[in-house]
Write a structure and sequence with these properties.
Chain lengths: ~220, ~200
């Protein structure tokens, strides 16, 4: 053992590293932004969140989108029929409630308001429920939220058909809200009396998931 | 006749390799959750999430078990060696690597628990937990890359790998790389000076 004990720095280094890491939970927002902005981020910065054991598969021949519930003219659309409807494009940022974001996502699809007008919702229908082919994922919007012009049923992402992990063939895009409202693999849309809690709302997340103004953020 | 000296006890080696195994397991399951390409390929996210989560708990439990059931006092001495960033059995870089790995482990566990809890109770959901967990992964990979390079590839240092597999390193190498290390006897605990063993004696 040496007489002149060298400085004990190990514990200090450990505590500084742990403390710095933990404190980033509060100050790390800029870090999150920086990490999200890395151009070569794996997967383009996306994370694929699913709740069922397997991702739904898409067969253009058998796929159908049912739109019904409290409507006067329920409709069942094939993939081609959906794509034949008037299309719109938009470039919007995608924000996940868990903290990551993807900037400038190019979406192409049909305005939900366009589809709703076609089925003629009844007077009592104040909610729109979306059922995913990924059982048991469901979510809903109020009729007013659903009619906002930037709410799309998107079938193209960044110039290509929607990839499977992003909800092929059709996903909802609600740019003003966190991603869990943008239901993937939409297979059924029902007009209902009012918006109800969906999959994540049942786990404590907000039904009105406006970015920066919900979920305690 | 080449002399060998003990550098790592059985408990130290077990601790190291169990740690490494769990790290690689968690890296694998974590990357399936993290990378869209793997997520699509494997699917079964709820199952992979469970495997990753319980693997993380198993990691900590396994290390705690080794510390309790193994040579507790010896491991405690090792921990105290890391307190001072001088150069004896370990050089300062090795100590910093070990300390940072320990800090990263603690942060991985805390942020992982927060992610798990946050999915069940929104009070535990913080905006940057995912970023912290991801950043830790990048930091751990950077440390691992340097560690693997020095332990497996770099010609003058890779002899150290033998210390972590068989427990012993050549005395000559030890004196050259760790001149101020008070070299212990090569077999079992005991007083006195170095008792070199030969290759023949060990095989």
């Amino acid at each position: 053992m040496s007489e002149q004990a060298p400085k004990r720095l190990g514990r200090g280094l450990f505590l500084v590293a742990v403390g710095g890491g933990l404190s980033s939970l509060w100050w790390g927002k800029s870090l999150t932004k920086a990490v999200s902005a890395i151009p070569f981020a794996p997967g383009g910065g996306w994370r694929i969140y699913t709740v069922a054991p397997t991702m739904p598969t898409f067969d253009p021949a058998t796929w159908r989108l049912d739109v019904g519930g409290l409507v006067d003219k329920p409709v069942t659309l094939t993939y081609d029929e959906l794509r034949a409807m008037p299309a719109t494009s938009q470039i919007r940022d995608f924000h996940c409630v868990t903290g990551w974001s993807v900037s400038n996502v190019h979406w192409k699809g049909v305005r939900l308001s366009e589809l709703l007008a076609r089925v003629r919702p009844q007077f009592s229908a104040l909610g729109v429920q979306f059922t995913s082919a990924e059982v048991p994922y469901v979510d809903s919007l109020s009729i007013f939220q659903a009619k906002v012009p930037d709410v799309l049923l998107a079938y193209e992402m960044n110039g290509k058909p929607l990839p499977r992990e992003h909800g092929a063939p059709v996903r909802l895009v609600v740019p003003e809200m966190y991603g869990y409202k943008s239901v993937k693999w939409v297979s059924r849309i029902d007009l209902v009396e009012r918006a109800q809690d969906g999959y994540w709302e049942n786990l404590g997340y907000d039904r009105d998931a406006y970015i920066g103004h919900s979920n305690g953020l | 006749m080449k002399a060998y000296v003990t550098r790592f006890s059985r408990s130290e080696r077990t601790f190291h390799w169990v740690n490494a195994t769990f790290f690689l397991y968690l890296l694998g399951t974590g990357l399936i959750l993290f990378l869209p390409r793997f997520s699509r390929l494997v699917g079964r996210r709820p199952l992979i999430k469970d495997l990753h989560f319980w693997g993380g708990l198993g990691w900590i439990a396994a290390l705690a078990l080794i510390a309790l059931l193994g040579d507790t006092r010896g491991l405690w001495r090792t921990l105290r060696e890391l307190e001072t960033l001088d150069h004896r059995r370990f050089n300062p870089g090795q100590k910093v690597n070990a300390i940072l790995n320990a800090a990263i482990t603690v942060l991985f566990v805390i942020s992982g628990l927060l992610l798990w809890l946050g999915e069940r109770d929104t009070r535990f959901r913080l905006q940057n937990t995912v970023t912290l967990h991801d950043t830790l992964m990048y930091a751990a990979l950077a440390l691992l890359a340097g560690h693997l390079y020095l332990a497996v590839i770099h010609p003058t240092t890779r002899h150290a790998l033998r210390g972590m597999t068989r427990g012993t390193v050549s005395e000559e190498w030890a004196r050259r790389h760790h001149p101020h290390w008070e070299v212990p006897p090569s077999s079992g605990p005991g007083e006195g000076t170095t008792t070199p063993t030969t290759d023949a004696a060990r095989t």
